[in-house]
Write a structure and sequence with these properties.
This protein has 398 residues and is an alpha/beta fold. Helix content is 47%, strand content 12%. The chain has helices at residues 23-27, 42-45, 48-58, 75-88, 99-111, 120-126, 191-209, 217-238, 243-256, 270-282, 286-301, 306-317, 334-352, 368-373, 387-397; strands at 12-15, 33-37, 62-66, 92-97, 138-142, 154-159, 164-169, 178-181, 322-325, 328-331.
Length: 398
């Protein structure tokens, strides 16, 4: 492993069917004013809301709410939440939901103590400044997996006026203090959302995996995570109530993006930049924006990182590096092996029901310029792209 790095993750995880029982003890560490943050109300239908309210009341907490957090949280919603939290004199945020709810809560947490004259959008999402005020502690109860936001500092906000969807990665001060991980809480989400979350996990791993050429322990860990995810995803799409499969997916999601496996890696993240730009103009589900561009993207950059793509094919997709021609054994070329891995990934994606074309998400050629304007060009991958190259990938993704 190359480079110098520091690893620190302050989030405490409570995992399993009885993990919500730990919330009562966690609440003892914080003040009386708790702001409960959640999305469209599904937690009220499946009973999670009532269970949490009961625990909060038993702990004698003053309960305030920010509800209606959308799947791509908007800047206007961020401003709304900041006002609610300030009025409540919040001591703890309890974010109940998936990545969007938790991402959003981090943005609010980092902004509550900002001077009101400072715009959090400009401060954090445009200038990418660190949080220089004391953030409000966050606890989370995860109900949808994918983003890893339950154990990292990521926060993605969409400015609908400028058609920009930007992810800010805060430092460890914005990591949730604790996270409740009960796989059964994910059982009620729609299949489409479950599958989108599965690919978000896969994409997170690949963005980190497809960088650098050194012998890195992180790559071995990621190969194991991907193999587990592929196996469990096939089971989950056939039986969404399979506890082992859903629990493995949940655990993989957390470890895919909790800053462990990117140690010593330069990382890529261009698929996410393109996907987020698509999401900003279409409001499409995040994981599906990633799946729709991934095959064209990885086909395009594969020649520049052929050895890693060969390794990916063999170690993740079980591609046999040897074949037969005229009944005689032969060694496949590196390109043949790498391409076979991409083909098998594409077949898996179709098998579990992912979106494979951006046209399915509402993208038209007339939107290309807006998407290109909103795509940040990064340098960490095997082939840093130009605007024209992103356009080629968009066209290939249609």
């Amino acid at each position: 492993m190359r480079g110098n790095f520091t690893y620190y993750n302050p989030t405490k995880l409570h995992f399993g069917k009885d993990s919500l029982n730990e919330l009562e003890n966690e609440l003892k560490n914080y003040g009386n004013n708790v702001v409960l943050v959640y999305g469209g109300g599904s937690i009220k239908k499946n009973g999670i809301y009532d269970s949490i309210i009961e625990i909060l009341n038993k702990a004698n907490k003053n309960i305030f709410e920010i509800s209606g957090v959308m799947s791509n949280p908007t800047l206007d919603k961020l401003y709304e939440g900041i006002k609610i939290a300030r009025d409540a004199k919040v001591d703890l945020f309890l974010a109940v939901g998936g990545g969007s709810v938790i991402d959003y809560t981090k943005g609010v947490s980092a902004s509550v103590n900002l001077d009101p004259s400072i715009d959090p959008w400009e401060e954090y999402y445009l200038k990418m400044n660190d949080c220089k005020v004391k953030p409000i502690p966050i606890g989370t109860v995860l109900t949808m997996v994918g983003t890893g936001s339950e154990m990292n500092g990521g926060s993605v906000i969409t400015n609908t006026k400028s058609n920009l969807k930007i992810g800010k990665v805060f430092d460890s001060s914005l990591f949730p203090k604790f996270t409740i991980l009960n796989p059964e809480f994910t059982f009620s989400i729609p299949r489409y959302q479950m599958v989108a979350g599965i690919f978000d996990i896969m994409s997170h791993i690949m963005e980190q995996y497809f960088s650098d050429e050194d012998d890195n322990t992180s790559d071995y860990i990621m190969e194991g995570l991907m193999r587990s995810l592929i196996n469990s995803s096939k089971i989950a799409v056939k039986n969404p109530l399979d506890y082992d499969a859903r629990s493995n997916i949940m655990w993989t999601a957390t470890w895919a993006l909790n800053t462990l496996v990117n140690r010593g890696k330069t990382e890529d993240w261009e698929v996410h930049m393109i996907g987020q730009a698509i999401g900003a103009v279409t409001n499409a589900t995040h994981g599906m924006t990633l799946s729709a561009v991934s095959i064209p993207y990885y086909c395009y950059v594969m020649p520049y990182g052929i050895q890693k793509f060969k390794r990916f094919a063999i170690n993740v997709w079980n591609v046999n590096p040897f074949g037969k021609k005229d009944d005689l054994p032969y060694a496949k070329t590196d390109k043949e092996i790498a391409q076979e891995g991409i083909i098998l990934m594409s077949e898996w994606m179709k098998e579990i029901g992912l979106v494979m074309h951006i046209a399915e998400l509402g993208v038209t050629e007339e939107l290309f310029d807006k998407i290109l304007d909103g795509t940040f060009l990064l340098q960490g991958g095997y082939k840093p792209l130009t605007r024209d190259e992103v356009l080629k990938i968009l066209k290939a993704s249609m």
